Fold each of these.
Amino acid sequence: MSRRSWLAEYAAARTSARSTFVLLLLAGLILAAPAAGQLCEGATSVTALGGANRFSAPVEDQESLRALFVNLREEILTLLDEADWSGNPDDLFAAVSGWQGVTSTTFETGQRIPWMVFRDRGQAARVGTNLCWAGDEAFAAWEIRFTSNGRWYSMIVPESCGNLGLLAEQPLPKAALDLDIGGLSCSDRTFDFRSSCSDGSASVTVELPDGSEKAADAGSASFPFTAEGDYTVTATCSAMSSRGDRLEDSTSRTIAVGCPSCSVTAAPAEVDLGESSTLTVVPTAGYGAELSRVLLDGRQLASPYTREMAHEGADAFTHTAMVETNTGQSAECSTGMKVAPTVTMSIEPDRVLAGQDAVVTVAPENGNGAPVTVTLDGQALAEPYRRGIVHGSDGEYTHTSMVENAGGSSETSATMKVDRRWTLLPTLSSLSGDDVHISMVGPDTTNRLKACVDGVGIGLSAEYRLSYPLGIVFGGSATNCEVDWFLHPGGRTGYSSVDVEMKKFFVGLNVHLTRPGSRVDWWLGPLVAQLDYSSPSFLPEAMDGMPMDASYKPEWPGETVVGANMGLKIPFKPDCPVGLYLGAFWLDSSMKAKSDEILGEDGGLAPAFELRKTPVYVNAGIAIEF
């Protein structure tokens, strides 16, 4: 019959046999004294060991103890089943065989024994329960301490009888630890864990990346961290056995603690409207993690994590990058980018005369960005961003406009030229014209008067520029010339030559044909002149040796004539106010004298005569602008 079949039959008969066994056991034992009985109250008192109830021969040394478990193995297994022992027999036999946890001890009076095996008068072995040692003296025994199936056991084998008994048992402490990377928080720099302990007291330690250790709270806890790396959490559950053994269970888990980070830069960080900037994100997943996504302004960004960025408006902009990792952590970083408005300006006209108005127009451009502030030469300029400019003196003037908003500022400049209005022209004049003459025939006299043909004089004129094309010129000049008179009275011939002073006063309009700023200024235009001649006295001398008794003194009144003016001036160097002047006047002149104003010694009147000529004045001098 197998051991298990025998155990089945035994289990059926165990209930009825237990009462008989206890009676026989009590009959073979010496009952305890009343004092021992008080110590063992509620339990069956045992006062003697050995004799007919011993389980084996005395076990006085280690070899005897090992032999007991080897020789009576099957019977011990049967008795362990009868005692409903929850441990694994292999653990008990291994403890004895390896002599681990086996010590020699003394069993004191009053010590309780949950169960112990006995023999029924040296025959069949039985299990007695709820026993207490009530002998007068302590007995020597072997104590076996070991763990099995999650419990701690203390079993004894008295040296005198080999009766195997259970002295104490208790569950082993059990530590549990839940450490999940999901409990990592990079915002408050902590990671969470949950530890538990059953049948003991708990303690938790955390090993930091540098190898040092710190105590942590048991149960639900958040552990702060500073450095990144591997953090090992160890949860320990410990208890003391009833026999003074320290029972302990621990479990450890390691978490890779790393937090993502990033930086984002814009190059350049400040641009003008219409220009672009390159945004570069530098992501870091952190220790033990991998990048899952990199976002820039909510849009996913691929490696090498750059994006060309342009804005349609001028303003200050913030770009935000987000880094996400496979551990569920994320980090944000941002940078500023400024887009400055642009500005253009114009001056119309950009070349004016002193005191003449010009209009400066500023054209700011901010796209669809923030409103702008516009200034012109440091002064605020309101819409429509125009301003009249007047300069009272000549020169080159630069005007600057600036436009700005939160995105920055831009400025531009434009230059205008202011020219002088007045030109003074001191000149030398040369008179020339046709050699026109007229012959006058009297009753007995023939006269021939030759006009002024050649002469030299000086003049002074000035021009005031109304605008670049038009100017008013006025002035005067005085010129001396020779007038020749040929007289033929009574067949005789006489000749007289006198100087005549011609004065000219004029005013005219100059039409300038060159563009402003040209090196040579050329003009022409009409003019009106007043010509005055001095009155000469003609005292002819005989050309044939015969005396002449005639004498003429004509009175020529002044005359107003029209004509034309043409000239040019060339500055000695660019923008120099002094230059060379060359010009000419053409006049339509007639020199008239009445007959009663031309008298001869013979009392005869010469007929009235008129001398027509077209004098041309050629002028040369300097031009002085002011």
Amino acid sequence: MKHMRKILSLLLALVMVLGLATTALAADGDGTATLKEYTFKIQNSATGHNYVAYQVFKGDYDEQSKVLTNIDWGSGVVADGDDGLLKYLVDNYASCKDCTTAIDVADVLKADKVENFSNAVATHLDTAAGSATVPEDGYYNIKVTGDGYYFIQDEANLADKNEVATKYIMLVTKEDVTIVKVKGDVPTLTKKVDDVNDTPDGTSSGSNSDSASYDIGDDVPFHLNITIPTDVKDYSEYQLEITDTLSKGLTYNSDAKVTKAGVDVTDKFTINSATNADGVTTLTIACADIKETDGLNISDMTNLKVDYTAKLNENAVTGGSGNENKAFLKFSNDPYKKTLGKTPEDKVVVFTFKVIINKVTTGDQALTGAAFKLEKQTGADTWTEVGNVDITDPANDAISTFTFNGLDNGIYRLTETRTPAGYNSIKPITFRIWATHDSNSEDPKLTDLHATGEITLTPNMNDGSLTGKVMNKPGNTLPETGGIGTTIFYVVGVILVLGAGVLLVTKKRTAKR
């Protein structure tokens, strides 16, 4: 009896041990095995992305052989049925025509016989296994559960953003954390303007500046420089569209030219311009697909350049904010969707100035009845008229303030073309305008404005004016014939004659004695 009790005790202990062992192998009370958790780390520090992982195949990852075994369809794809992934592969890929199971498809993939497999998966997605929407220390961390083969796509809406969507990613879970380096370059656009007039140090600002100054009537040269990323090869088509906005002070000369490495490719682009009721002109330069356009040779394309001119017109703003010209680029930014990204706007500013002459007489009293013309020195002995008051217009008789708009750096000569009655004419007055502005800035500003020469001109940076006074003095008042002047001469003459007579009589009397 004692032996029987010992045997029963041993059997009970064995059952308990076996029960503990079975519990240790199960993660859940329902007897299912614990699935391992993995983290896919997508290397990208840019915000605004949404990386989502889908399990295409599930299975068991073998650490020793580094392969996925016991493969079946994962939870991330719709595999079966008439609209399933399997039928799609069978119908569209010759290498999969005999496939009936997930293992069959995996074997074909192993031999790399399904081109763009990820594109097929993208149209048959089901339940997401995990996602990441915020980067942490430069990585988007996607946590998934279970061994398998995963498809990862960027599901963010990147329309009008200066970002590109990441290409589809296919990854097998591994013991170590998977790190994926994301490559996604965006094109760039820079806007520049030539400043061909003299600067205060006697030189020219030259080309590739962010600001310039010109006279009204001048043609202003603008340049757009566009870099094309190497990622273009990942797109089935790649669209470019430049939008350039000219303020009302600039009139587009309809002369845009597009070049690639110095070769004219203008005919490969559609160029349009439109001016609204406010006088603002929008210039668009577009190509629907630079990859399919003959002559662009996208494989060796590194940059494009657009050159054009615009005339500074009578609506130009003087000083202050100047006359803006800004541009941005829209571009294909998703290899699988027809969304367009957008670069930041790049701005250049064209400045121009004005001279205000107040006509005065002694005591700083306003004086009317004058007229002036203003000339600019355009050569060693050459002067070009840039402003004039119509001296035949009677309305100008009431003018005492003369404004000459739209002037640039340079030497000027002010000439009085009509002198007020009763006043002395002035000699021509020569002066020089000096202005500087930011040549390399995202928001170019006017930094200095002053003048030197034969007149004092007070600058106002806000409205770009240089104001001075020109004085006319009255003519001299001379004695008139028949006036008091001649009477004095007569009186003095009579006195002298009488004096001489008295002196003569006195001398004769003295002689007789």
